[in-house]
Amino acid sequence: MMLVLGLAAGLWGLGWLLRVPVALRLAALAVLWAAIILAHLVLPEGAGLRQTLGGSAAGWAVLGGAAGLVLIYAIGLKHLKARTTPAASEEGPFRQAELDRYSRHILLREIGGPGQMRLKSAKVLVIGAGGLGSPALLYLAASGVGTLGVIDDDRVEGSNLQRQIIHSDQRIGMAKTQSAEIAVKALNPFVEVRPYQRRLDAEIAEALIAEYDLVLDGTDNFDTRYLVNRTCAKLGKPLIAGAMTQWEGQLSLYDPAHGTPCYECVFPERPLPGMVPACAEAGVAAPLPGIIGAMMAMEAVKHLTGAGETLAGRLLIHDALYAESRVIAVKRRAGCAACGAMH
Fold first, then answer.
1. I want to staple 265 with a disulfide (CB 3.0 to 4.6 A). Which of 80, 190, 261, 303 is the partner?
2. E strands within 210-313?
3. Cα separation of 208 and 237, whole Å?
C-alpha cells in the first residue's frame, strides 16, 4: 500500500514539475484509485497483486471517500468565494491585490463584497492620533476604509510610545498626523490619508466634519468632545466617541439623526476640574487604549457595513483591572442643548 501511495505522490509531483493542470492530475489519481479498486474486485483472494495493494478494497474505499469529501469541500468553498467576491478587473471596484487583502472580510456573510465596497467608499474622520486614535486608525486602514482623515496638533513624544502604537521611536518630534500617515500607508497603500496638522476648533469644525460620513472622537479634553458632538448633531453625522483613564474605558455610537442620544444627552454637564484627570496626571495601562480604540474601529466597521448591532443607544464600559465589561442603555434627553431641536 505504501508503494502505491508513493507512486501517487510521484505522479502528483511530476505533474507539478511539468505544470500539468490540477484537474488532470486529480483525474490521473482517480484513474489509479479506480484501477486499484477494480483489481481487488476482479483478482482472486490471496493473489500476489492484491496483497501488494493492501489485501482489501475497504481501506482504499475509505481513502477515496475521504479524498472525495475534501474535494467537494474545496469546490464548495471556491464556489462560495466566487459568489461573494466582486469581479476583479481593470475597471472593477477592486484590484486583485485588494481582493486578496480583504478576502477574510468578504467571506463573512455579514460583510461580503457589498459591505467591503461600502468600506472602500466611506470617509471617516478620526479626531486625535493618540492612544485611542492609534489603534482605531490602524484597524480602519486594515479594514479597507477608503478615506481616513486625521486631525491633531501634537507631536510625537517618547512618553506617547507606551500606548500610542501608530508612532515609533524614530518619529519622535514629528507631527502626529504625519507619523500616523506614514504608518497607515505602510499598512495599506490603498487607503487615502488626509492629515490635518492643527487643533480642531469652532472655526473649522463644521466645514471639516461635513466632508465625512462618520466621526471617531478619541480626544482627551472636554472642550473638543462637546464641540465635536454638537457639530455632528447639527450636521446629522454619526459619532463614535471613546474615553479612558487608568484601567477603565467607555464608548458609544451617538446618532441623534436616527433617534439615538447624542454625547451631551448622556453627559449633559462637564465634570468638575480634577474629577476626571487626564492620562498624563492619573496614568493609564498600556493595552487599555488598544482595547477601546479597537472597539471603536469595530463599531465603525459595523456601522458602515450594516453588520450586527452597534452601540447606538447603548454605552459600553470596560474595566480592564477586573476584566469586566457591561453595556447600559442610554436614552435621548428632552431639552438637550446639542440635539434637543431634533425631538
1. 261
2. 214-217, 239-245, 248-254
3. 12
